């Protein structure tokens, strides 16, 4: 069969061999991409995260993805440093984890990421002093209450978006890194967003998307900076997850629960510098990349205008 195909190719005009070869190489590349996708999503084992250290620090652990990370890491035997702004909520999550995983050591650090960040980071440094912090989950973040044009964003919200999403992630990372560098091991996971990476634009959420684009580039640079120091840095890019921030209550095939996302996320730590851990999201990512950007821009604008209208109606009812 191979000889027959070879003879047929030899009989073709030389000018036709180039497009045939390019077509074959393109097909081979596509087949390889499919096989790689299957491997990393369904076959490749997760790394032994305990090799990074025995403690994990999680920001924003009292709800949503951060809370799910806390429970999943406790299940894997990590001790936890939980960093959030509400003492009562931190205590509630801590007690829930201890009731399920009694051997877990937990230290709570109260930090208002929209407040005095320098003071909060100082408290984090005090708590982690002498601890083998091997894993950092930068999950804390804020978004808009609902879609709105930039000129409608008030000063407080604008300040919070930049301070929490950009400055908070940066300073907590800077606080944890020295210990990892000294021990020559560690992993940092920054939670990004499909709003900054997957779709070409996110109108009416411009500042939020821009802050998450910062997180993505920040992560990639650190990945290169610290790879030889034994520190793995990764930006995880989820699409919609059933959280309060996303205003989605029920999970579905394309919208995982927070626990479903966290379980998938742990399998990816230590691998690619950017990833979307929940595999159905990668299908949506591929679909977005296959469509014209102008089409996605138009669709997204209409979608966000609908969110804005519903948000304004809720505000008017409150008044």
Descriptive overview:
It contains eleven helices and seven strands. Helix 6 links the parallel strand 4 and strand 5. It has 319 residues and is an alpha/beta fold. It starts with a helix and ends with a helix. 34% of the residues are buried. A seven-stranded parallel β-sheet has the order 3-2-1-4-5-6-7, sandwiched between helices. Helix content is 57%, strand content 11%. Belongs to the short-chain dehydrogenases/reductases (SDR) family. InterPro entries: NAD(P)-bd_dom_sf, SDR_fam, VLCFA-Steroid_DH. Keywords: Membrane, Oxidoreductase, Transmembrane, Transmembrane helix. The chain crosses the membrane at residues 16-40.
Give the overall pLDDT as a whole number.
93
Reported for the largest beta sheet, the result is:
7 strands, parallel
Strand composition percent: 5-15%
Number of domains: 1
Total DSSP E strands:
7
The total of helices stands at 11
CATH superfamily: NAD(P)-binding Rossmann-like Domain
**Roughly how much helix do the residues carry, as a percent range?**
55-70%
Structural class, judged by helices and strands? Answer: alpha/beta
The shape, in one word, is globular
Transmembrane segments: 16-40
Pfam families: adh_short (PF00106)
InterPro entries: NAD(P)-bd_dom_sf, SDR_fam, VLCFA-Steroid_DH
Keywords: Membrane, Oxidoreductase, Transmembrane, Transmembrane helix
